[in-house]
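BUG-464 | component: ligand-complex export | severity: low

The export step for (R)-mevalonate jobs runs without errors, but we want the raw record kept on the ticket for reference. Input record follows.
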Amino acid sequence: MSPQSSESNVDVTQRGALNTRVASSRVAGFYKWSREERAEWLKRSFDLTDEELIGLGALIDERVEPSSAAHYLNFERADKMVENCIGTLSLPVGLGLNFIVNGRDYVIPMAVEEPSVIAAVSHVARIVRETGGFSASSDKGVMIAQIQVVGCDHLERAAEAVRAATEDLCALADNIHPNLKRRGGGARGVEARVINDPHPMLIVHLLIDCVDAMGANAVNTIAEGLAPTIESLTGGKVYLRILSNLSDRRLARAQFKVPESLLVLRAGDAIQMEGSRVAEGIVYAYQFADVDPYRAATHNKGIMNGVDAVVIATGNDWRSVEAGAHAYAARDGQYRSLTRFWREDGYLHGAIEIPMAVATVGGSTQVHPTIKVLRKILNIESAQELAQVCAAVGLAQNLGALKALATEGIQRGHMSLHARSVALSVGAEGDEVDQVAAALIEQNQVKHDLALGILEQLRRHLAK
Ligand code: MEV
């Protein structure tokens, strides 16, 4: 459609809503509109400028050579990934440095908007590196397909019938998705669980090794394909057929040990806190999180600061990893820490175990051009290896947070990065950013109004 026809399209569908501050959210056929039509609608409905639309990716910047944007997620690609697309949203990508995992060096791309996350993991990885780095392991890529059956006359007998048909069900599953088997994966087993309350139902689990794929599509296809057979085996009615995000057959583990002396806190040459006291504080912090869900939520959020940043940078489904992590943290009925810390023979030890349904093939891992580049930097060969790296980063992030929390607190470390963000948010540019940030830190107050005042003063001073 030409921009000309876009005009008429917009007018017809949005008569009365355009040129007002609040556009109606009922936009018939939005998904059929061209990029230009969507941009035009956004412009008129929300009073957006061309610059703003270019920033969003809704409009093409004529001044930029299209070829120079080859590595970005451009509108055409994004439009094929989601519905009603109007543009893209960038995130900063930084490198987690100093990491050694299982004896191998990794430079780890991390996509995250929060200051300090990348600095914290790199700082910790630098310490852990002194004793050889993290050791890590991970399970094969086994996901769980869940099939919910209700209305069975005898639940235990239905469960037995399903278990007895394991071989046939696995063969059928491999038939439904032969690709997985070809890649070395496929059905690995069947489980049947009886639930009585609040309604009697049988839950069938099919365990499927998805190898290097996350496997959501394959697992869902298999679950749907098996449903008729499950109904005839059990005499019940199948309702839900979907993967479980509690991927507890796909766990990743990482651990480290460092001499407590390396944890010493210094201020210049002076020792502020001995390493043994720092280690003690870290273990107390872990114990706090392990028994108190209020603290555990924050503790685990910190872990996910690191994990998600790698999961996002590698094009993986971070909502799935988040859901799995938090469900796993509550597996014994109480929500707890995903990590453990303990002291032994002058060393601080730390370990993490976390479900990690990440992939190196399929989904957006192959669609997003930037992610392809980041994957080249990370240079991992399999989903299991990626899972190990993610676990190590999560553990590093947690140690970094606990070390700061148990000693000087996190605000000091955050302050300079936070000050820079505040400076940027009030419009500081170029050298002004550092100058405003430095003035905020000097006054020990990182506040928006203050930053604005400093920036105005700076500009007045320069204008003289
Ligand atoms: C902030 O994003 C994360 C922390 O709150 C984590 C923690 O408290 O352990 C610092």
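Assignee comment: Attached the raw record above. Confidence is low (pLDDT under 50) at residues 1-20.
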